[in-house]
Amino acid sequence: VIVPTLSTQTVVSCAPNPRHCGGTGGCGGATSELAFKMIKENGLPLAMSWSYKSWDGNSPICQPGIFDKAAVGIDGWTVLPANKLNPLKQSLYDSHGPIVITVAASGWAHYERGIYSDGPAGDFEVNHAVVLVGYRDPVPEKKQMGYWIIKNSWGDSWGENGYIRVEMKANEEEHCGWDFHPQEGTACDGDPEQTWVCGTCGILYDSCYPTGIHVKE
Prior knowledge:
There is one protein chain. The protein is of the alpha+beta class. Helix content is 13%, strand content 23%. The chain has two domains: 8-73, no CATH class; 78-210, Alpha-Beta Complex (Cathepsin B, Chain A), CATH 3.90.70. It has three helices and eleven strands, in the order H-H-E-E-H-E-E-E-E-E-E-E-E-E. The longest helix has 11 residues, at 32-42. It starts with 7 loop residues before the first helix and ends with a strand.
């Protein structure tokens, strides 16, 4: 079965962000919930209709008529409990697909390979949306490190062919700290100016996945 690639550029360039949730929109920042809202209302075209252009951190304006080419739609989305480990792991099975998560990615720029860790002190300044595709549980008695498998949006030349493995600590739910700049992650105008974030690189804080995926007529 060949699964067609959807137009990520449409999500980046066309999702409205009037309350500046996670930023100013486009490559200036938004949230996965805003993206799913746009797809529910308009559908999403295939990548062949508009391929990804924002490798350099710039987003072109939304193409007029792009939603006339919509190929798939969704009925809604599910937001997982914040800062909880088991719901995130279980949802990878239950949703039969990847999950959108937000992470603290300021230290990722020079990642090339291996298992990335934010260290004992942690990094909780959530500022980037990525896709969680899998994980391996830690086995402390065997000194086996656990990790999350994440697909990034910085091209295949970055990391492990566009992916990164991030440490899954044995105490993920207790590895927490304050995010003092939540507007760079998921917060909107008028939201609290700090928020409590858990997991390596804040991986447990904000996650969701689409429901009712269907082909558009």
